[in-house]
């Protein structure tokens, strides 16, 4: 492709509203342009990278016996109402009505559509298992789109769905898809980890996220320093044995604590440490208010609260709800004398507190010398807190360290989460109607592009890996007004194209400095400069990733290029 006939609007200045380096470079190098918040156009270079990412995904999906289809983005509300997610998915679901006042959603995901499609077509166990995938735009009304393609309102996604007659069959496909995902991200050159994760709004259980390690990642990964254990911090189990105190439990005493509302305030007031305080919080688990206790130096994990309570949605209770429930301010909450019908959940660390500090459920008052079992009763203790760096690894090997990660893929064992409410059934080998057992496997294709862009760059621009670079070779005649340079550039352009190489020829009438700056910014694997030695048939070659430079003769270009790309 010649640069004079394509569309690569490079920028000299960094856009002020681009927060992270990958977003800045994608804009500056002319790969994308923002239409509005969280919505982008992919320009020719960006589209070519997307297509190459898609090619890797398609090859590995097909190797895993997944077959490509294409489903509608516009989905009727009735399907979402059947599954129940019309009411629980939240504000991220983009909803609209047609001219006949019928309700629809723009597809945030496709579990409902694929299940309704299969329930009308697959009636026998003999047709199972079946694994189908698509690559399509998804829509989510993100409250705060950010980081360019990493969190947008419209994005490209690969989603696959598998249907099974048995759980054993699902397990087999899950393992195959796990390996397919590892193959995809390895081929793309990404530094990633497969981590245990929460299923979120998708539902189901037994699932893994694929995280690209990056300081700009919005997710925290907890991993062992000596084993392969890795989990999203929301799902990392706490495997800690807390020391048993040898203190003698003293009589509980009520103390006025005016203006002391935080754990730090209370610890300082009582001249103690945060681990001696009992943090009391009120959560709304679906429509029920519940009390959750944790040690003062620990942070309550709402995902674990959701699992402990069995709720679908968990969120912090509002100050008004707390006031109505316990008639006190949030800063004075405690586990003493709670209403009899309220459920109480406590983290394991609370069990060994002796002579601790807790709120008195009376604004401006706390109790000291509070001991579980003596002063209040806990029906059962649970793992309710976030794991911390330095904690023992849940697999018993090593200690936990933290890293930031960008989620690029997620695989789930859905089970019958969708097939039961949507009445997706088949006849088993005994002629009995049974619900499909399902799996779900997603990759954020446009997010992968951003993750690769974040990982492969330097001070001057991109350093794309060969497998996804928009073009393989950048031909740069320094002066296109020079007949020798221009003609040699055209000759090499034809030669490489005829040998199936993807070539970008900079035939613009620009200064050499502009051309070289743009070439480094775009970041193709090899740049061949046709300059002052063109008459001698000598070319200057730069390997973009390493910065190495060489001189090649015109006659050896094809052989050298073949060696580099190993075609």
From TrEMBL:
Reactions catalysed, as given in the entry: tRNA(Pro) + L-proline + ATP = L-prolyl-tRNA(Pro) + AMP + diphosphate
Q: Which domain of life is it from?
A: Bacteria
Which positions fall inside the Aminoacyl-transfer RNA synthetases class-II family profile domain? Answer: 38-465
EC id: 6.1.1.15
GO cellular component, alphabetical, reads: cytosol
Could you list this entry's UniProt keywords, alphabetically sorted: Aminoacyl-tRNA synthetase, ATP-binding, Cytoplasm, Ligase, Nucleotide-binding, Protein biosynthesis
- Chief subcellular location equals cytoplasm
A Pfam family recorded for this sequence: HGTP_anticodon
Residue intervals passing through the bilayer: none
Any one Gene Ontology biological process term?
A: prolyl-tRNA aminoacylation
- Which SUPFAM superfamilies does the record cross-reference, listed alphabetically? Class II aaRS ABD-related, Class II aaRS and biotin synthetases, YbaK/ProRS associated domain
Q: Which GO terms describe its molecular function?
A: aminoacyl-tRNA deacylase activity; ATP binding; catalytic activity, acting on a protein; proline-tRNA ligase activity; transferase activity
Compartments where located: Cytoplasm
- Role, per record: Catalyzes the attachment of proline to tRNA(Pro) in a two-step reaction: proline is first activated by ATP to form Pro-AMP and then transferred to the acceptor end of tRNA(Pro). As ProRS can inadvertently accommodate and process non-cognate amino acids such as alanine and cysteine, to avoid such errors it has two additional distinct editing activities against alanine. One activity is designated as 'pretransfer' editing and involves the tRNA(Pro)-independent hydrolysis of activated Ala-AMP.
Domains as described in the record: Consists of three domains: the N-terminal catalytic domain, the editing domain and the C-terminal anticodon-binding domain.
Could you give the subunit structure recorded for this chain? Answer: Homodimer.
Family per similarity comment: Belongs to the class-II aminoacyl-tRNA synthetase family. ProS type 1 subfamily.
Name this polypeptide is given:
Proline--tRNA ligase
- Name its species: Planococcus versutus
**Gene designation per UniProt:** proS
């Amino acid at each position: 492709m010649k640069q004079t006939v394509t569309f690569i609007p490079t920028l000299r200045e960094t856009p002020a509203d681009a927060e992270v380096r990958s977003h800045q470079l994608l804009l500056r190098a002319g790969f994308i342009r923002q239409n509005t918040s969280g919505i982008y156009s992919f320009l020719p270079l960006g589209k070519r990278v997307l297509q190459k990412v898609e090619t890797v995904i398609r090859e590995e999906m097909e190797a895993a016996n997944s077959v490509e289809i294409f489903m509608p983005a516009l989905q009727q509300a009735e399907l979402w109402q059947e599954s129940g997610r019309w009411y629980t998915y939240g504000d991220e679901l983009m909803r609209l009505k047609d001219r006949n006042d019928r309700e629809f959603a723009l597809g945030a995901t496709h579990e409902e559509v694929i299940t309704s499609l299969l329930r009308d077509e697959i009636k026998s166990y003999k047709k199972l298992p079946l694994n189908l995938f698509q690559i399509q735009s998804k829509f989510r009304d993100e409250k705060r789109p950010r980081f360019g393609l990493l969190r947008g309102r419209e994005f490209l996604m690969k989603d696959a769905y598998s249907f099974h007659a048995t759980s054993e069959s699902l397990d087999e496909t899950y393992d195959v898809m796990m390996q397919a995902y590892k193959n995809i991200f390895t081929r793309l050159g990404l530094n990633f980890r497969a981590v245990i994760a929460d299923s979120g709004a998708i539902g189901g259980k037994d699932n893994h996220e694929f995280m690209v390690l990056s300081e700009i990642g919005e997710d925290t990964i907890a991993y062992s320093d000596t084993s392969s254990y890795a989990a999203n911090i929301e799902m990392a189990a706490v495997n800690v044995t807390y020391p048993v105190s040898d203190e003698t439990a003293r009589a509980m005493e009520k103390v006025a604590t005016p203006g002391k509302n935080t754990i730090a305030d209370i610890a300082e007031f009582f001249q103690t440490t945060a681990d001696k305080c009992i943090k009391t919080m009120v959560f709304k688990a679906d429509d029920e208010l519940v009390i959750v206790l944790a040690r003062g130096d620990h942070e309550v994990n709402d995902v674990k609260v959701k699992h402990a309570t069995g709720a679908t949605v968990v969120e912090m209770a509002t100050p008004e709800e707390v006031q109505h429930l316990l008639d006190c301010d949030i800063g004075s909450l405690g586990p003493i004398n709670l209403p009899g019908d309220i459920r109480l959940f406590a983290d394991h660390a609370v069990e060994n507190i002796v002579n601790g500090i807790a709120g008195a459920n009376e604004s401006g008052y706390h109790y000291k010398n509070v001991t579980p079992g003596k002063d209040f009763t806990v029906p059962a203790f649970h793992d309710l807190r976030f794991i911390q760096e330095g904690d023992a690894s849940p697999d018993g090997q090593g200690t936990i360290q933290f890293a930031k990660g960008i989620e690029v893929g997620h695989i789930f064992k859905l089970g019958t989460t969708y097939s039961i409410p949507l009445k997706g059934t088949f006849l088993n080998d005994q002629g009995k109607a049974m619900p499909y057992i399902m799996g779900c496997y997603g990759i954020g294709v446009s997010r992968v592009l951003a993750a690769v862009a974040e990982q492969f760059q330097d001070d001057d621009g991109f350093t794309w890996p060969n497998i996804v670079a928009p073009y393989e070779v950048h031909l740069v005649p320094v002066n296109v007004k020079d007949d020798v340079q221009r003609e040699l550039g055209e000759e090499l352009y034809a030669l490489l194209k005829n040998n199936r190489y993807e070539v970008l020829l900079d035939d613009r009438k620009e200064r050499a400095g502009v051309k070289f700056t743009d070439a480094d910014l775009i970041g193709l694997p090899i740049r061949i400069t046709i300059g002052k030695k063109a008459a001698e048939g000598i070319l200057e070659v730069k390997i973009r990733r390493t910065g190495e430079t060489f001189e090649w003769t015109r006659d050896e270009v094809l052989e050298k290029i073949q060696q580099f790309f190993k075609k």
